[in-house]
Amino acid sequence: MNKTHGSFRLLLLLSIALWLLIGCADNGRANPNGQTAVLPSPRPATTLQPTFTPQATAGPLPSLTPPPPRPTAVPSTPIPFADTVFELRYQIPALSLDRRLQGNVASEIVAVDETTGLSRQRSNQAGIMLELRAALPAMKLEPLPADCPGCVSVTYDMPGLDVSGSGWLQDPVLLASIENYLTAALGPHFPPDTVVGLRRAASPYAPAHSVALTSDGRIWTWLATEAQVSSPGEAATDLLSLSLLPDLPLTDLQPTYAADCAGSPLETLLIRRSDIAWEGEIVCPEMALPDTLLPLYLELDQRLAAKTADVSLPRPALPFPLDGLVDYRRADGSQLTLLADGTLIGIDTSSNVFTGTLTSTSPLSLTATLVRSNLLQPGLRTFTAAPSAMPQTILVVRGPTGVLDGQWDTLPDREIFVTLNNLLADLIGGGPADPAAPQPEAEETAVSTTIAPSPTP
Hints:
Elements: H1 2-27, E1 84-92, E2 97-104, E3 109-113, E4 119-122, H2 126-138, E5 141-142, E6 153-158, E7 163-169, H3 172-186, E8 194-200, E9 209-214, E10 219-223, H4 240-244, E11 256-258, E12 266-272, E13 277-283, H5 285-288, H6 294-307, E14 324-329, E15 335-339, E16 343-347, E17 353-357, H7 363-372, E18 377-378, E19 393-399, E20 402-408, H8 415-427, E21 454-456
Parallel strand pairs: 11-13
Antiparallel strand pairs: 1-2, 1-6, 2-3, 3-4, 5-7, 6-7, 8-9, 8-12, 9-10, 12-13, 14-15, 14-19, 15-16, 16-17, 17-21, 18-20, 19-20
């Protein structure tokens, strides 16, 4: 037994020695440089699970930009473009004038004529609306008199500002501005029973003004700047205007009669008959109006002249007068003018003025003869053309289509010029005849006249 036990001990010692030799050999293994590598000691056993450790980076971590905030949802409420910004009402009961303006958020202004039912809408009126929004709250309105149908009544309302007002407007600037805008949108206003009406826009010489002849013979005249319309004139059944209406060729009239005259306002003429009505625009009636409308227009002009006498400025005279029918200017400097009432005005070569009357024929007969001669053309070039180096003969005639004219270096061989030369010679006392005019033999002229010349200083 001892022998066996001793053998076991010997075997155990040999095993331990062999294990130690192997470990020393590994610990002493040389590296390629000839140095002995030291083996690390074994790690102790762990009971905790290993945790992740991020590797070190070469530089600082980049800063992260936070995402933009998400926009707040906008409610889909539509803009109230149709909402009213202001409303203005303009009334003159005596004239049955009742008009209204209404502006909305979309800068649109609607003009309404409550009397006729006519309405017009205008867009892009932001500038006008700004002016009105500033002017309306500052408008001074006096209480309306108890019984004043001719007083201008204004009512306004501005819902967004909670501002409103009503009363008698007397500011001439605001009166003219409101009347002008309403007229531009709806046309001029005349009383409903108007048979003849004329409205002139404002000019450098006078504010806007109107005249209306109603079917009962009353004459209304008013200014756009006056706060109270005067009572109409006395009824008159023998007015020239009424007597001329049945014979006016309304179907032959043009919608516009206009000439280029500085400072001449736009005019609107209205003529109503039981069977037909005509409304036309006129600019510079002196140089554009036809002879068919002249008598009627002259009567209306006379009424307006009295109304505007205190508020108008003198207007420069035009080469052809408003009541002129014929203007004949010879190359020698003498001149003959025939007016609508038959008056003849002559000027000799020394600028002496003579007047007379055409008695044997109507002025319209003479103008008709001149128009039928086919010597004249529309366009009125004689007063606007550049002056010629050679003295010229000029003839201007107001005919049924307007004003016609012509000019000649050498006068045509036509009998009508013989008539004009004889009229001028009789008027100025046998002055020299136009050397360029044909000399007639002993025969009577187409128009015989009786003239009583009277020198005018």
